Amino acid sequence: MGIPSPEKARDLRHFDALLDQVLQGRIGRRQVLARAAALGMSAASLATLSAAAGGPLEAGGLTALPARQDATPKPGGILKVGLQADPSALDPHRQTLTAIWHVIEHVYNRLLTINPDLTVGPELAAAMPEISADGLTYTFTLRQGVMFHPPVSRPLVASDVVASYERWRAPESAAASDLASVDTITAPDDATVVITLKQPDASILPILATSSAIIFAPETIEANGDLSQVAVGTGPFRFVEYVPNTRVVLEKNPEYWEEGLPYLDGLEMTFVSEDTQRTNAIITGEVDFVEYAPLRDIDQMEADDAIALAGDENMNIRFIAFNLTKPPLDNPLVRQAIAAAIDRNTIHVPGTFGHGTPTVGLFPPTFWAALNEEIPGPDVERAKQLMAEAGFADGLKTSITSWSQYSFLSAPALVVQEQLKQIGIDAELNLVETATMIEVVHSADPALRTYEIAVTGTSGHIDPGEVANNFKTGASGNLASYSNPRVDELIDQGMAATDVAERTGIYQEIQRILLQDLPWINLFVANQYEAMRSDVKGYVHVATGTNVALKQTWLDR
Predict the structure, then answer these.
(1) Which whole-number Å values give the CA distances from 233 to 45, 270, 474, in the listed order?
(2) Which among 356, 215, 362 has a CA at the least distance from the CA of 294?
(3) Residue 196: beta bridge partners?
(4) Would 314 disulfide with which of 130, 286, 344, 528, CB 3.0-4.6 Å?
(5) Residues paired with residue 122 on neighbouring β-strands, in sequence order
């Protein structure tokens, strides 16, 4: 056969590395073909890689690939994880923040979980629930042999689920509106939980798989007052310490109920909010894994054989929010003027570096409830006319608040600030830390929401009702303080409907109304990637952005 040339040997290495990433579910067809073409691979190689990437699981138009099963995982080792943001606290009932979710999802379990194909499956529930004929009663049987971490160290019982859910839906909870359709939650015995709804709710099962659906032991609250600095669950990793602005340390739970998991001895999570530092950390091996791999560096990391990427299109939306309690933003003409002035194609570029999609709707274009209307270009003259009609021909002063940690939001916020200058709007840009952003923009208490305009986002949903509920009158997630009786009615209809075509029509009508009322101006959907060293194996990307697959991740060292 002969010895291959250096060029041929290099091509074989690249091919093997790409094929390995495809088979492990780290990259999909679009990514693998783009990288293969960039490396100048042959048509035969492209065909082979395309075939390997051609069988993804489909759910809602988004794709997820399963991890390769032909390698034997190696137990042991500490995975060093770079997180983009400090969670500021660990209590998901007090703050609905993705940064919290990316820590506590490894410590707690929920009754249900989101599978890689975006279907809902059982977690602490032994199986999917029995549902009554009228769609109002959901009966769950709990998995046996599940133990709480020390110092609780006792079996999970149904009353723990009841206590967790009652705290979740309490008026002071930041996520109380998630369970607005729930009437009662009871535990007829230690192994059974019965949830009764006020009316049918098609989104209830996905909601029971969200970050707010964690199951904790009541004695943890009794001992600590809340969950802000402690975490005692039933998950694959036990909480060791949280040092604000520095790190979170988790250790393997040897009593975890999923046999053989986790493979890792622990997770050491450090906060690396600056994009360049996060990219350098994964390239140099300072960390083994980073969430929110910086989009501006995706192409660079794809070309590095020492790094593997997982991800693509994600269930998120980045938007401009208006505080409708703050004049003149309560004037629809002002909001219409801002909507007419912005250029989404320009706004999303500094946030996604080409790894995103402009949108006017609430969902990714491939999602079943997407509106998919044409993206309007900026019309500055019409915007100026609307400003004049609103009584602000000479302009106005306001402020824009956004996240300092998230460059995919802070960079677009700067572009929005510049674009508004064209129509006489002088907006001071305030880039703030997580705790401030939560308090002044995302607080469940309207009295604490002091922002005027915000550039922010939401993610992690798999049912359109989860997003639509942000526009329900009085809902805890309604950061705009928006109210429209017709939208309230449609939200209720969307919850009660079970036919997908009917639900699609309902959520598309909601989006059309929102395009007129403009409590939000939707900007873009950002792709999301996790980057890891090539010896990190078994990880599977899920389009909600969860990193829960770290429980099945292992180190090939």
Answers:
(1) 47, 21, 31
(2) 356
(3) 137, 184
(4) 528
(5) 112
